């Protein structure tokens, strides 16, 4: 049983806790927030009495085996280091860190301390993502791929009113690509590996982060076009086109539906049933890695490739974070 501590008290933390507890492989043992009152109020929902407002105290308490980090993006690397140095396994929300150097430094640190470091990229561990992977040979030679995730942010009206919410604030290493564009990007890397080259375009807000953009990954025989936006809603499915057929995927971040269109054949619904809480699968995989002490796992390579691409794409778009100077 993994004794879990959590950093962050927002909706995504609630969702992960429910997912983790449902696997039967975790107990929630500690809660951290910058405010002890906030931590206590959140912990009451789960009948947890160990609350902290100082990271080092939770890291050295002896109460936890692993920590789930769901703080603002810019804090992920700094907070992960505190726990890795105490021999505590880390599952960090995407993106694992602000840029590729931070990711590489964290991986080296985790390996030197013999702990599992894991990015909570739920898409890669979902049953329907495996369906997509298995169906790729049925498409023949790949030619065109379009992956899209566009979702109007609930915080955008506040930004338009002159406020500076985290999601549009470069101080928190945020913006469209890092917040939601990372989902189709990670899916592309999981399916096709590292591209030969890339091109990137983004429309920046006055705050300095990207409101929306397009990223194109160039492979030998095909391109992958990734569309992302936090200022508009998208409803079209993603497509993977080959010479013999096409896969349509509904809502690429969670792969709600997978349909195969092969030339001259009826459409086939390949969708398999998935848990309503998509985070169950990443929680299960993290528990497996911890149980088997798999310090070097496949997810780390995907995380490194994705981080290298987002770092390069941001440089092309002109999106710079304070974390880039650290």
TrEMBL record:
InterPro entries: Gfo/Idh/MocA-like_OxRdtase_N, GFO_IDH_MocA-like_dom, NAD(P)-bd_dom_sf. It comes from the Bacteria. Residues 138-247 form the GFO/IDH/MocA-like oxidoreductase domain. GO terms for molecular function: nucleotide binding. This is Oxidoreductase. It comes from Photobacterium aphoticum. Residues 2-118 form the Gfo/Idh/MocA-like oxidoreductase N-terminal domain.
